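Task: sequence in, structure out. Protein: Ser/Thr protein kinase RdoA (MazF antagonist).
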Amino acid sequence: MVEHRRRHTDEWLAHFARRGHRDPRPLAAGVEGAVYRLGEGLVAKVWSGRPRADLGLLHRVCADIARHPLPFATPEVLDTEVHDGVTVTYERELTGSPFRAAPATTAAERDLSAAETAALLTVLRALATVPGTEAMRALTVQGDDRPLWRGHTRFPDALAALVRRAARRHGDVLAAHVPDLAAAVERVVAALTALPDRPVTAVHGDLVPPNVHVDDTGRPTAVLDFGFFTTAGDPAFEAAVTAAVWDMYGPHAEHHAAALTDLFAGELGHPAETLALYQAVYALTTYDLFTPDGSDGHFHWCAALLRRNRAARA
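Result:
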């Protein structure tokens, strides 16, 4: 796996200024790129870690989603350029503020608020109304080397193949932290292939607090940053991953993950065992996306999830 992480630079600020944007400012940065606020309701995203063809697909995916009436905004790409070999997209800046700027840390925050859980249910229910499209099926998830659906007609089978590929990347590193990893991989693959076929819908795949914007009342106003694990898939996969990643590192993280998993099972009708299985899949396929040597927090989070996950254990 090639490690990609783009950071803000003065060179990009100067580039946007030369294009006529009077006061460009850094806004956010992560594994897929760096985002700059340009003013006048515009942002620019400087991409990394994705081939140019895949970015074209991602723009088609955003257009596919935008065709459906949702109770919140989603990204709209207005222009694209290539500068010094790097792809830049110019997009409408989405409104609202991230739901949570930092992990819940106080005893009073052990239980998520009703506004927070209601917002998550709104987002999950809305995305599950958007049918999966060919562009979504053609996307490559972060860290992999081929479109997720290539050679497959069922989402569970596509995931099973992805689990095997991901285990070959740096599985020896993960095995040092997860007892009997090879057996866990086989259990997860077998459980995936046994899942019934379901209609697929749009999957964001990275519904963490910075990617869900809300207004002052807690109502979702925007869902942004599609691409990390965006695909066409089972809505239960979206719910499972969201429950697991909404609070990854706070002192109440395990409690929040368990509570959200139970909530989504009850409110959305997803079998609890399927949610646990998809959470194991997420850990097995993203464990090495930030560093290949197991030295980062995400790796240790994935290993801990696999050690306690009932779908991965004997």
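The beta strands are 25-30, 33-39, 42-47, 77-83, 86-92, 97-98, 201-203, 212-214, 220-223, 231-233.
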